[in-house]
Design brief:
This protein is α/β, with parallel strands linked by helices and about 300 residues long. The protein is about 40% helix and about 15% strand. β3, α3 (about 70-75) and β4 form a beta-alpha-beta unit.
């Protein structure tokens, strides 16, 4: 198996999702593995995909939302090889005989994160994010719904999109701006920019949600919890489908029901003194209700 990442394998965010997911099977002796990091431009990634396919790798994963076109072109040149690409909700419709797709239940992830935020009873709530992509907008639409469920009185500030998933400096400035405007809780994602959110929040004594405990020491001091992607169950399915020759038209999606979306890093922090001691149990109860369909999340549509 070969994996090409648009960022670093230890970024505590999107790219580490893939790296951790496949390394588990390498450690268990099920696969041999090659990981190429920080191939930001899809123009640079495409010849790498071709190289791995020509060398006979059973599966080539292009883990970057800008890689899809390059993966599909390469797959046509190497019909005997198998590939995985990532994308938003519409990518599932593009799966072919030798290209599987992956996405995640963005609204569902956001809903659970919003519920965690609402349980803090902190308000106003700000969102600091990188690029204004449709799947990101869908996540924050779900976040608003979960926040209202847990704390109907919470005031939401409009999201700030810095334009970069990696620029911690821009995220720090955006976070500081929202805090000066009154934010008492800042929501973000565990991406390359997250350290900037954490440092600004710590300096102001403000809580966060959405950051990984591995982001920074500051994140461990201010972050209440997050919802992470665990790719292991889906990599297991990928490998089984390859072995059983049932790979064609495979569309994978990380959800709460298949345990590829999981609450994580739930913590009691000084910046959120009213977080209930049983928050972990409350979150687990909501996961069960969402997975079982007892609680539903309104889907995002463009223009909302």
């Amino acid at each position: 198996m070969a994996v090409v990442l648009a960022g670093l394998a230890d970024d505590s965010g999107f790219h580490q999702i893939a790296a951790d997911g496949v390394r588990k099977f390498q450690q268990d002796g099920e696969i041999s593995l090659q990981i190429r990091e920080s191939v930001i431009n899809p123009v640079d990634a495409e010849p790498i995909f071709r190289q791995y396919a020509a060398e006979g790798y059973d599966l080539v994963i292009g883990w970057g939302f800008s890689y899809a076109d390059a993966i599909f072109r390469t797959a046509k040149e190497f019909p005997g090889s198998h590939f995985l690409t990532t994308g938003g909700a519409d990518v599932a419709q593009k799966a072919t005989d030798n290209v599987a797709t992956w996405t995640y239940a963005a609204e569902e992830m956001g809903f659970l994160l919003g519920y965690i935020a609402g349980q803090s009873k902190l308000s106003p709530v700000a969102v600091v994010e990188g690029e204004k992509q449709p799947f990101v907008q869908a996540q924050w639409f779900g976040f608003s719904q979960g926040l209202r469920l847990a704390n109907p009185a919470a005031v939401e500030m409009p999201p700030i999109y810095t334009g970069s998933f990696e620029d911690a400096g821009k995220a720090n400035q955006a976070t500081a701006t929202r805090i000066r405007e009154g934010a008492r809780l800042v929501a973000a994602n565990a991406e390359g920019y997250a350290a900037g959110v954490a440092s600004a929040a710590k300096a102001a004594g403000v809580a966060t949600v959405g950051l990984a405990s591995t982001t920074s020491e500051a994140a461990r001091e201010v972050n209440i919890g997050r919802v992470r992607v665990d790719l292991v169950p889906l990599v297991r399915e990928l490998l089984d489908r390859l072995k059983n020759k049932t790979f064609a038209r495979l569309a994978l999606k990380s959800t709460l029901a298949n345990r590829s979306l999981v609450p994580s890093d739930i913590a009691k922090v000084a910046t959120a003194p009213d977080v209930p001691g049983d928050l972990g149990s409350r979150v687990d109860d909501l996961v069960g209700q969402l997975a079982g369909g007892k609680v539903t999340v309104q889907p995002w549509t463009p223009g909302r």
